[in-house]
Amino acid sequence: MSSLQKSIMKSKLPPRVPRSSGIAKLAPFGSSRRKDYSPVSWKQYFERCVDVETEAGTFRVYLSPEPDHPSRPRIFTLHGGGYSGLSWSLFTEEITNMIHCQVVSMDIRGHGETKVKDPDDLSIETLVRDVEQVIQKLYDEEPPPIILLGHSMGGAIAVRAAHSPVIEHYIHGIAVIDVVEGTAMESLASMQGFLRGRPTHFKSIEHAIEWCIRSGQVRNLESAKVSMPSQILNVQTGKLAINEVDTYKKEDNPRAPEPTRHGPHANCITEESDEESDTSEASEAKLARTDSESEDTKLTRTNSTNSENEDNTKLPRLDSTSDDAEASNAKLARSDSTEKDQTGTFAVPNAVGDGASMKYKWRIELSRTESHWEGWFGGLSSAFLHTRAPRLLLLASVDGLDRELTVGQMQGKFQMQVLTRCGHAVHEDTPGEVARVVASFILRHRLTTATENGEHMHLVSAPGC
């Protein structure tokens, strides 16, 4: 082949992959390829919120528009540990479009905008008492029919609340999402390791939403945009991030090439931050790695190691109480649920000590609630099967049933639905499917009627197991 032919051929071929002499730098993606992680206000999904005063404190409750008749059912939602009432935002939009009802979404104590005298008391008895008092305060006289709907920890609360003599008479149905006693109790041993693997601080609300999606905590970006700001606090103001959403301006300042960071902890605080933040040039030189590269391009080892992890990452303690906790909490480790295509560790341009780099932290330190975990889930299956009201169980996997529930399901003691293509936050990942199943459940027991849109969906004929 002549030199002319070679030059012509080269011009038509894609560029070569650079030789791996050292570490290759990936060019930043264009802004058009970067997803929009800007937060969204809860006001797009709920009509209003009220702060319910009880003897324990103030509980934030979000409400969808009033139904067409006072006798319509209220779907009282209870979120999982670490989440908030806003995790039901997209579900609320979907189900109120299918059936005549109102969604009442409560922030559990220690979460969201709820403020109580003892936020650390998360015993199951206290949580049930909170639900009783909030319902009594919302409906002074005869309450309308109530369907309790709970996810994970909230599902455990819903089951126990359905047995409460104070409100049992008003509970006309109970639906539990992805929580089973057997699997929950088995997972408790590894829960602390999972929690330590999460980042403790985020640079911005957008970064928190991005981590939420890339880590797999929530797989639905639209849902993460509205729910994640209710799970983090502004370190400087001590207020929940949702208070900044209405006036939030999308970040347009030049930063390091964030889109080249393909892991769930992109833009979160890492130990590398204080080494590479002297200049923006050093930050831009941060490189992504691939699995085929040499050993020295794998995830960076932090200064101290954790015997529970074999991936050379440090898991920062979330339950630190010393004066040095802030410095420790500014470090980030890769989560156990990291996506398989993660290519490296990432550092934000600012130093660890920079206030802007540590602007947001988790609303609640879940690791400090460990003493209550067994109380939440112990005896849950039996309590669920003996609930007086009709029962619905939604799972992300058919393998989630324990023996007691398997027997109960074979005996037809409850309705079960398995929803695939979703993670643990089933109602956030697939809100339309969850709404359809719950709406069908409510219609099947003749607690309400379908809306005009719902009539075209043939909801009652939706399959059940």
Give an overview in words.
Pfam families: Abhydrolase_6 (PF12697). It comes from Papilio xuthus. Demethylates proteins that have been reversibly carboxymethylated. This protein is of the alpha/beta class. It is 28% helix and 12% strand. Strands 1, 2, 3, 4, 5, 6, 7, 11 and 12 form a 9-stranded mixed beta sheet that branches. Strands 8-10-9 form a 3-stranded antiparallel beta sheet. The protein is globular, with a radius of gyration of 24 Å.
Low-confidence stretches: 8-32, 252-354
Number of helices: 16
Distance between the termini: 67 Å
Derived structural class: alpha/beta
* Helix amount: 25-40%
Coarse shape: globular
**What is the oligomeric state here?**
single chain
The proportion of residues in beta strands is: 5-15%
- On the 0 to 100 scale, the average pLDDT is 77
Radius of gyration: 24 Å
The H-and-E topology, N to C, reads as HEEEHEEHEHEHEHHEHHHEHHEHEHHH
How many beta-strand runs? Answer: 12
The biggest beta sheet reads:
9 strands, mixed
Family: Belongs to the AB hydrolase superfamily.
EC number: 3.1.1.-
Organism: Papilio xuthus
Protein name: Protein phosphatase methylesterase 1
